[in-house]
Structure formats: C-alpha cells, structure tokens
Amino acid sequence: MASAPVTLWDGKEHDPHYIERSYHEGILPEGGVKEQFRIQTIRLKTTEEIVGFISMYHGYPQSDSLYLAMMCISGDFQNQGYGQEVMKHFLLEIGLLGYFEIRVNVSLRNWAGLRFWTKSGFNLISGIFGDTEFAEGKFADIELINRW
C-alpha cells in the first residue's frame, strides 16, 4: 500500500515490513504492552476493498487516552473524503468507549497531515519533539490532541 513520501517528513528509510511488524509486535510507547495495541483495516463500504489502515494504542499517556500510531489511506483514495469519514466515525466510537482524548504525532514537514488533523479537531498541542532548528536533514514532530 502506497501512501505518501514519509521519508521526506522524518528522514527515516522506507520500511516495507512496517505494517507486518506493527501487526505482530505493535507500535508501543515506553513501557507499553502489545495487548493494548490494535491495528484495523479501512475498507470501502461498497466493495470491502482495503484502502488503508489505522493503528492505535489504548491507555496512553493516561488510561482514558488513546494514541493514534498511524492512519494511512492509499494514495489512489486520498483527497476523496475517506479519511475525514473514517475519523468522524472513529471519534464517535472512541467517545462511546469512554476515552476523553486522542493524541497523534505529526511531522512538522507533513503539511497535508497537519491540515487533516487540525480539520479533524486535533487543536491542542502537547509538545514539539525532535530537532530544534530548521535545516536540511533536520526533522521535528508535533503532538496534537483532540479532547472532548
């Protein structure tokens, strides 16, 4: 599944086994346990075709928080409203499960991602992490929160 040029945002080499490793090992915070990590496919309603995935860690940094490790919509399906539809329903479901906030980490170089997440209500900033100066080969991320 191809999405976007992630290497341009974080400087890391492409990992063709990322999804497989995520499924088997999880994307865990420090001290995290695999049992609290979930990965879910995103499928078209009409054909059940897989067009993306979303992965999350339940209970970080607090027990009533959810941390989005990754959300990916395949390039052929981007900019058609699928991501916003997924996020709208996801936020409703997560609220029903008793979570009061969702956090996501976004590269400061990922302009489309920053627009997507702020449009989805992630309008609180908990921190900026990474390099402290802007330059070639320097990278930083921002952690955004959607809290209700």
Automatic annotation (TrEMBL):
Domain N-acetyltransferase: 6-141
PROSITE patterns: GNAT (PS51186)
Keywords: Transferase
SUPFAM superfamilies linked: Acyl-CoA N-acyltransferases (Nat)
GO molecular-function term, one example from the UniProt record: acyltransferase activity, transferring groups other than amino-acyl groups
A Pfam family recorded for this sequence: Acetyltransf_7
Record protein name field: Acetyltransferase (GNAT) family protein
Organism: Paenibacillus catalpae
Lineage: Bacteria, Bacillati, Bacillota, Bacilli, Bacillales
